[in-house]
Each structure stands twice: as structure tokens, then as C-alpha cells.
Design brief:
The complex is a heterodimer of chains A (456) and B (148). By secondary structure, chain A is of the alpha+beta class. Chain A contains 12 helices and 16 strands. Chain A has a 5-stranded antiparallel β-sheet. A 5-stranded mixed β-sheet of chain A has the order 11-13-14-16-15. Chain A has a two-stranded antiparallel sheet with strand order 4-7. In chain A, α8 packs antiparallel against α9, α9 packs parallel to α12 and α10 crosses α11. In chain B, β1, α1 and β2 form a beta-alpha-beta unit. In chain B, α1 crosses α5. Chain B has 148 residues and is α/β, with parallel strands linked by helices. Chain B starts with 9 loop residues before the first strand and ends in a 5-residue tail after the last helix. In chain B, strands 2-1-3-4-5 form a 5-stranded parallel β-sheet, sandwiched between helices. Chain B contains 5 helices and 5 strands. Classes of the chains: A alpha+beta (456), B alpha/beta (148). The interface between A and B is medium-sized, with 21 and 20 residues.
Chain lengths: 456, 148
Amino acid sequence: MKAPEIKTILDYKKLFESLPALFLILKPDSPHFTILDASNLYLAATMTKRNEIVNKGLFEVFPDNPNDLTATGEHNLKRSLQNVIEKKQQDIMPVQKYDIPLPAEKGNGFEERYWNPKNTPVLNDKNEIIYIVHKVEDVTASIFLEKKGIEENRISEEKSQFIRSNEERINLILQALLKYTTMDFSDRLSITDKGDELDAIAVGLNSVIDELENQMSLLKSTNSELEHTNKELDSFSYSVSHDLRAPLRAIGGYSQVLLEDYGTKLDDEGKHTVNVIIKNTFKMGALIDDLLTFSRVGKQNLTKVLLDMDNKVNTICRELSEQNKNGQLKINVKPLGSVEGDSSMVKLVIHNLISNAIKYSSRKEKAIIEIGSYNENNMKVFYVKDNGAGFDMKYYNKLFGVFQRLHSSNEFEGIGVGLALVHRIIKKHQGDVWAEAVLDKGATFYFSLPLTKDKN
Amino acid sequence: MENKTHNVEILLVEDSIEDANLVIRSLKKSNLGNSIIHLKDGAEALDFIFGKGEFSDRNIEDKPKLILLDLKMPKVDGLQVLKELKIDERTKTIPVVIMTSSREDRDLIESYKLGVNSYVVKPVAFDNFAKAVSELGMYWLIVNQVPK
């Protein structure tokens, strides 16, 4: 590529056209003011083309906006130009609204514009005006901004005016709101005949409070019913604990007496039958105990303390493995840390989960149980994993229900309260219980408790 | 009732005849059953201890060595009997063992507040029940010492 040739003689036409401002050169032929030339920026700002405006009268090209009846552009500009001719001096106009016609491709019409024009005479040696230089700046954007500011001021002034003149009503609404936050719903707001926004607020608020008051009284009566039902349940479980146990003891006890005193008169079938009776009285006794524990946990309040889980789990493991000396059992306890909870309830949870793990892995040649913990989402999660009988995940929804069992009593002893109890206790602690299992491969039971603030 | 009413060692207050018979059987097996009297409710028990009504021929100083007391009984319940025994200077030293089916905390707490000497929940399993009764009898009649 060849470098452009740099001219040492100035090309005035090119130079003028490229000036970095908006210039228009006019002939001083009042009242026509024929356009002689314009800078490129002027053409761009007025959306015109040089060949369309040159040699035309200024006001032929830029007439007043016929839709703006208050337009003063043509009149003021004409007067300024005449001033220049008369005084042979520059004339500076104040900011002038002067809308410009839109080209055909923009749909004709006019566009709102603001300008600050300066008109300057160009004199020859004889002190005669040969041209007028019309220089402008397009100040539309800053005028719009200013207008917007004024409008905003007007609105905020209107608002403060509204607040000032309705101060008392607004205060009443605020006072009522404050009262409602204390659950005192006795007052209602009065409605004026103004029908304004404040009245709309008052009407809306009144109906919300009516509804709230209704719901509250409904809740109160439901609560007292609930309290009554709880008391009944309380006395029911009390008599269950006493009255069901006594006959059970008699059945078992007298069966035992029968064996002891008349054993010689019974054949093997007879002795077996009596033993079945005795065994089932034990089972029913355990059932009653579990049910009572289950219902007691429901109504008991939590007494939360910081629990040393390592200590708790190890103690329970020791107790349980002493009872299970037959078979190969290995319990692997990882570091557990501490967590807040009700000591005796959490102990029940751990006891249930570990004894389940031992029970359901008792048929394996080598039972391995792992107990561990980890933190997740502000919760401390504990798990008990075994390699025992497991269960089919398709029955998962029955796992934590009362009296629900996934194995028959012949396979594994049990009555189906343990996991329901675990579930109830953990839910009471705002925690969660879940499990994963593969049939014949083992199961993992998880429970989570909220982490204490000073994390461990 | 074949029981004699004087120089009684164990007073058993129990409304269930079946339970009572099992208790007596267990005590006898441990050779502790020589002088037991069985009464069926709290009213009878109070009459017996304080020598009133049917037992007006009894002297209050003729104290049993041990009272086995059920809680839930007709007329006067076990807690009431316990209360009257423990507020009376003449009877407050007699050891009282509550034997009940109830493991409700409120009964346990109330009994201890009233000054019970032991509180035993009757096991459903007879073996355990028999063992508990005979150990109780051994302890209170043979091991334990009370002021004369």
C-alpha cells in the first residue's frame, strides 16, 4: 500500500467540512439566508445531506414544527441573524428549542431538539458582510436530563406534600401496625370519605387483620382440643402400662407354675405348648414397653446438652457386644466428636441402630459394623453400617413406620418400633434419618443433628 | 385367709390375687414365707397397721418387718398408704417397698418424695419376677437392720 500524499497547500474545502463542530455558512440575504455550506457534523446532527440543503433558504430547510404551536425557533433565529447584519457583530442566542424535520426514511414528522447557537459575521476588506457563520451545539440530552430532574423534584414535592397533609392518618396506620406486631388485633383502622391510597391501605389492612384474628382463634381452639387429647392419651398410656402388664404377668407366671409343679405330668408336646405361651408373654411385655417409650418420647421435652458421642457410642458398643458373644463380631468406631442433644433420647437412637446392625448381621460368618460421622450443610451426620441382611430399597417407605417390619419374626426377632422411635427422636431434634441398603449385602443407617455453633 | 395377724414379718398389699400368690410362692421358695399376710387394698392395710376396724385387736407396736405395697388399688391407693405411714412417727421406720407395674416417672418421683425405701417395677417375665421378690425379701428381712 502507498502512503497517502501529504499536501502542503491547504485544502480549505476539505478542512471546513471536517471541522470538529457544527457549522453552517449562510449568505446574508435576509430573509432567505441561503445555505452555502455545512460541516459534516452539522449534517449528521440535523440528519440532512449537503446536496439537499445547499443553495436553499435556511427556513425552507428548517421550518418551525407545525405541531408545536409555541415554537419560537424560526422567529428568534431570524432576529439574531438580522442583528448580526445590522450590528456587524457576533450574536449569541440563549438555549433555543428548535425541532428538526425527520427525513422520509424516519417517517417524516419532527424531532424535539435544543440548541445554543452563535451567529458570527464574516466581513470583507470594505467592512461588508459576505457570510454569516452559524455555529451550534446540540444540548438536547442535557436539557432532557434537567427536565427529568425537575419532574422528579415535582413528584417528590407532591409526595412530601401528601405526607405533610395526611400526617395524622399515616401515624394512625403506623401505630396500628406496631400494635399488630405484638399480636394485639383489637383495633381496626377508620376509613375516611376521601377514598385515596391511605383509605385503600386501611381497608386492605383491616381485612387482613380480620382474617388473621379468625385464624388465631381457630388455632387457639384447636390447641386446647389437642391439649385435651394429649391428656387423654397420657392417662391411656398410664393405664396400658399398668393394666395390660398385670394379666400378662399372671399368664406367664402361672404357666411357669404349671411347668414347675406339674411338669412331670406333661409330655414333651405339653411342655412345648406351655413354653410357647411363656415366650409370647415376654414378647407382648416388650411390645408394651416399646410402645410406651414411643409415646413418652412424643410428649417429652428435650433437654439439650453437649454429648460426647465417642464416649456414648463406645459404652453402648461394649454393652451390646457383651450380650452377643456368639459369632464373629467386629465393631469399628471412627472418631465421632460431640453434638448437642437430649442425652437419654440420643442414647436410645444409638442403641437401636447398633443393636439392629448386630441383629441383622448375626447370620454372617464375619459381621463387620462401622460407625462414623461427617459434617454436611450445618449438620453433623452419624452413620451405622453393617454387612448383614440389608433390605430391598423398594420397601424403603415402610422402614420408619410403627409396627412395620421388613423381615419376619422367624428370620429376625423384633416388633417394629425401634426405627419408628429413632425417627421420632431425631425429628424432634430437627434432624433427619435415612438409610441405604442392598439385600443380603448390608445396610447403612444415617442420622443428622444440627451442628453446635462452636463447631467441632 | 389362713394368715395369722400377729407377729407378721411381711405385709403384702396387692389387689391382684394372682400377683399376690406368685409373690408368696417366690417368698416361700426362699424360705421367707413363714409369716406373710396378704391384704387386698389400702384401706385394709391402714386398718391393719394402725390397729383399727377389723384389726382393732392389733397393737400398733407389733410392726411388720417389711411392707410390700402395690400402687394401683381400689379404695385407698398405695401412695396414700405410703403417705400415712411415713408421716406417723410410730410407723415411719417400717421399710416400705413399692411393687408396681407402672414405670411412670411421676409415680416414682412421688413415692420417693413420700419416703419410700425401695421402688420395684414388677417384671413381666416370671423368672425375673420371682428372683426380684426373693432378693427383696432377703435384703429387707435378713441383711437390713432397722431401729428397734
